[in-house]
Amino acid sequence: MTIRIAILGVAHYHANFWTRAIQQSPDAEIAGIWDGDNAKAAEFAARYGVAAWYDLPDLIAKCDAVAVCSATSEHVGLVRAAAAQGRPVLCEKPLGKSLGDCDEIAAIVAEAGIPFMQSFPKRLDPINHEIATLLREGAIGQVTLCRIRHGHSHGFSADFRAGWFVDPALSGGGTLLDEGVHAADFLCWMFGMPETAFATVSSSTFGLRVEDTAAAIFRYAGGLIAEVTTSWAFAAADASIEIYGTEGSIVLGGVDIASRPTRESAFLRVFRKDGDSGAWTASPTVPHFKTGVFHEHVAWAFIKALKNGGPMPVTIEDGHRAFALIDAAYRSVKSGRAEPLRP
């Protein structure tokens, strides 16, 4: 059976990747395109040779599942509309524009009992699974520090600065939420939930209503410190993830827009101590981000889970936990002190 997926909202550029991925899948097809702006829906649909719909409930009734790629502020309403008709949901990150939004979406999904997948493409990249295996096997000993730098240079674009991403009413925040939520999910995946967050932000680069640069420190019960730095003004970069342990180090590059052009090999490097010395080794794996096929894997994983009837590879709980880290960081920005993670 071909799975008919409706794209609900095209404000997020990732709708392009998901639409192409669905069209390339032998197991799925686009049921239609809906957006709150009819003209945008029509233009997007024409670009991909699919139908634009202007009646949201009618489109949902005629599909098997939905992919929500709207402005973040619309997530709650679109998930509610899909849940009302029992349709599985793939939802762009972040889960909501506030922790209250995340709570509401979680309640809607739980009450309807529908499958739900949060879009965190890093969860689907083999290069990150290699890191998870190294940590699980204790390859670098006790981890003491993790640094994640993640971002891009889109802030230099006038179109980006005029878009919905920089409107807090639509996006919920700036780079700390937009890009930092990827790093937050990586931390939750690798190390679990921290105890506290301390953060600072700046909007001085572009003078936007949301931050264009941010840094957050998360502290774990066992003493691990994790640093997240993110920006919309990275002209270029190299290492994106650095993990330091008592017996070695892990360094990964080429996995964000700023670092993608930097290197052509040895993306994942591992140092292992050997007495008073040691040696670096490099993985032959090329990150999905470097290949240029990255966000498509999210749509393909959603289709696979629907086809096989298995669990979603990234859950609503994953989306909620990652947002909780960012929420604590924003609370720290306001209070000027370390803030606890919400239980």
How are the elements arranged and paired?
Blueprint: E1 3-8, H1 14-24, E2 28-34, H2 38-48, H3 56-61, E3 65-68, H4 75-84, E4 89-91, H5 99-112, E5 116-118, H6 126-136, E6 143-151, H7 158-161, H8 168-171, H9 175-178, H10 180-191, E7 196-202, E8 213-219, E9 225-231, E10 239-245, E11 248-253, E12 268-274, E13 277-282, H11 288-291, H12 296-308, H13 316-335, E14 339-340
Parallel strand pairs: 1-2, 1-3, 3-4, 4-5, 6-9
Antiparallel strand pairs: 6-10, 7-8, 7-14, 8-9, 10-11, 11-12, 12-13
Helix pairs in contact: 1-12, 4-5, 5-13, 10-13
Question: Could you explain the architecture of this structure?
Answer:
The longest helix is centred in the C-terminal third of the chain and has 20 residues, at 316-335. Helix 4 runs parallel beside helix 5. This protein is of the alpha/beta class and 343 residues long. The protein has helices spanning 14-24, 38-48, 56-61, 75-84, 99-112, 126-136, 158-161, 168-171, 175-178, 180-191, 288-291, 296-308, 316-335; strands at 3-8, 28-34, 65-68, 89-91, 116-118, 143-151, 196-202, 213-219, 225-231, 239-245, 248-253, 268-274, 277-282, 339-340. It contains 13 helices and 14 strands.
Low-confidence runs (pLDDT<50, min 5 residues)? Answer: none
Number of helical regions: 13
Task: Give the overall pLDDT as a whole number.
Answer: 97
First-last Cα distance = 42 Å
Structural class: alpha/beta
The fold-level CATH name of the largest domain is Dihydrodipicolinate Reductase, domain 2
The CATH architecture of the largest domain: 2-Layer Sandwich
Major sheet: arrangement of strands: 13-12-11-10-6-9-8-7-14
In total, how many domains does the architecture comprise?
2
CATH homolog superfamily of the largest domain:
Dihydrodipicolinate Reductase, domain 2
CATH class of the largest domain: Alpha Beta
What is the rounded Rg? 20 Å
Series of H and E elements: EHEHHEHEHEHEHHHHEEEEEEEHHHE
What is the general shape? globular
